[in-house]
Amino acid sequence: MKWFKHDSNARHDAKLAKLRNKYGLEGYGLYFYLLECIAGTVEAHNLTFELEEDAELISASTNIHIERIEEMMRYMVGLGLFEMGDSGAITCLKMSLRTDEYTQKLIKRVTNVPTLSRQNPDKLPIMSDLIEEKEENRTDNKTRKRVSYSKEFSEFWDLYPRKIAKGNADKAWLKAVKAAKPEDIITGLKKQLPVLKTKEADFIPHAATWLNGCRWEDEVATTTVAAAKPWMTGNFK
């Protein structure tokens, strides 16, 4: 998606006013940064309107402490500026009404828009019509996706200790193997498994985050350093 509509009087919106009153321009800026992140991933094959970046990546990109990011995102979800599914996936389905003309045409043409969060958006006539599919059709779509997974990705997925958002991980894998050999990625993961497995499940990066960050190239620490508090990655509960 090349652009999305940003009203010139957005600052007067009640929800955004509450966000700005609590977190100032830092929160206001983060809100539109997240919208840009979501919009940047919307394509013909991806109309989920989901946020792919997790707290760790957002923190690194914005220079805002990860705990501050998590706190502000929880508040934004509470205000209804974003939706959050059971898996912790963040979406902004209302953006479907504020897209460029090309994306609007794509939305009107498709018959099913899968979202990992499975949120049924309120007051979204277009998206509501699109995602109200029967559960059996949704299951069929998921089954077809599983069949398309490559042998190398399946090996990676079997090894990776946190199995969340497999579809996002597969997309990240396809990007990663353009820059690196699949065997090098898998070898790098195997070297890091002892460290990854020492973390609690919620604090292990999503596989997509790990791949997008080229983490297979990370050096493996020779000593274990106890963190004062683990970083949350992607689950804003």
What are the SSEs and their pairings?
Elements: H1 14-39, H2 55-62, H3 66-79, E1 83-84, E2 90-91, H4 101-109, H5 125-131, H6 135-147, H7 151-159, H8 166-176, H9 182-196, H10 207-212
Antiparallel strand pairs: 1-2
Helix pairs in contact: 1-3, 2-3, 7-9
Question: Any overview of this molecule?
Answer:
This protein has 2 domains: 10-137, no CATH class; 149-217, no CATH class. It is 50% helix and 2% strand. The chain has helices at residues 14-39, 55-62, 66-79, 101-109, 125-131, 135-147, 151-159, 166-176, 182-196, 207-212; strands at residues 83-84, 90-91. Strands 1-2 form a two-stranded antiparallel ribbon. Helix 1 (14-39) crosses helix 3 (66-79), helix 2 packs across helix 3 and helix 7 (151-159) runs parallel beside helix 9 (182-196). The two termini are 28 Å apart. 29% of the residues are buried.
Give the number of DSSP strands: 2
Rg result: 19 Å
Structural class: mainly alpha
Largest β sheet strand count, sense and barrel closure: 2 strands, antiparallel
Number of domains as seen in the coordinates? 2
What topology, given as strand order, has the largest sheet? 1-2
Total helical segments = 10
Regions with pLDDT < 50 over 5+ consecutive residues? 113-136, 223-231
* CA distance, first residue to last residue: 28 Å
H-E string: HHHEEHHHHHHH
**Which percent bin holds the helix content?**
40-55%
- The percent range for strand residues is under 5%
The geometry reads as globular
Output mean pLDDT.
77
